[in-house]
Amino acid sequence: MSRAIACLQILIVALLAACGQPAATRAPAQSAIDAAATYSPGGAGAVLARARRLLDQTPALMPGYVGAGIACSSCHLAGGTQTRALPLLGAYAKYPQFNARARRYIALQDRIAECFLYSLNGRVPAYDSPEMVALTTYIAWLSRGAVVGTGFTDVAMPMVARTAPADAGSGKALYAARCSMCHGVNGTGIAPAIPPIWGPKSFNTGAGMYRTDMLASFVRANMPPGGSETLSEQQALDVAAYILRQPRPRFRGAAPQIFEPEPAKFF
After folding, report:
1. Is the pLDDT of residue 14 over 50?
2. Are residues 45 and 85 in the same domain?
3. 20 to 30 A Cα–Cα from 195, which one of 17, 47, 75, 187?
């Protein structure tokens, strides 16, 4: 047997042995670990559990601060733990950050306040209120392994590319065929599971979802539930354009924001 043939046989045996070995498992990403973690018992766990209830049942648990029939989890799906669905994973690490609308640096509490004002069409709870503390604590808990200033880079919602003008007429037909069975012909949804996407109980004109590109990206990445990218980018833009042409509350930017005082308890 020649040396070349012997070497070839050794190589074949080695390859067959390698194929029989289980593939090396890749360590889960830190964002996935944070998303799947369970609450610890005791006081900290109780705060986190309360925050999750607030996210999922915002109108019921905070009626004085919510004007819409929308919960935080209506946009931040699965309590902010679902990637590609405006996740809260890693968000704590990205604040303070410059806010173009406010033209200043804002803290995480300021960003939560924006959600109450715009997406929930309501009022802002005091920053030292138990609700605001719980929500901030929960978002910090979802950001335990994130890099400060960066957050997690593997969880963001992909944004659609606008290659042609959005066509609200085509969007109307698509909405009737693909969306109305859940959100209703009048956009009212089915409370509390399916949020209204227009009308008096929907988000107002100051919300991030009031931007065609943002709404289209969310729809394409997450609708229908359990499936994604069933619409093309252009179809998602068309549907978003149709939805945003429908009536909804207007944000009253000139209205003063009044924060009710909370009793101080010192230690």
Report:
1. no
2. yes
3. 47
Contact assessment for residue 192 and residue 69, using Cβ atoms and an 8 Å cutoff: yes
Residue 17 identity (one-letter amino acid): A
Residue 78 and residue 85: Cα distance in Å, rounded? 9
CATH of the domain at 81: 1.10.760.10
150-200 pLDDT, tens digit each: 999 999 999 999 999 999 999 999 999 999 999 999 999 998 889 999 999
| 126 and 188 in a common domain | no
DSSP 262: -
Name residues whose C-beta falls within 8 Å of residue 200's C-beta, 6 or more positions apart in sequence. Answer: 248, 249
Q: Across the chain, which distance is largest between two alpha carbons, in Å?
A: 92
The DSSP 8-state label assigned to residue 176 in this structure reads I
Same domain, 119 and 39: yes
The yes-or-no verdict on residue 19 having pLDDT over 60 is no
pTM: 0.86
- Cα(26)–Cα(30) distance, integer angstroms: 12
Cβ partners under 8 Å of residue 154, min gap 6: 29, 31, 83
Residues 137 and 43 in one domain: yes
Tell me, what's the pLDDT at 61?
98
pLDDT score, position 2: 55
Q: Is residue 17 part of a domain?
A: no
Supply the range of the domain harboring residue 117: 30-141
Helix/strand/coil for 27: coil
Domain count, the chain: 2
> Residue for token digits 């996740």?
87
Query: CA 139, CA 150: separation in Å to the nearest integer?
Result: 15
Query: What span, in angstroms and rounded, lies between the C-alpha atoms of 197 and 187?
Result: 5
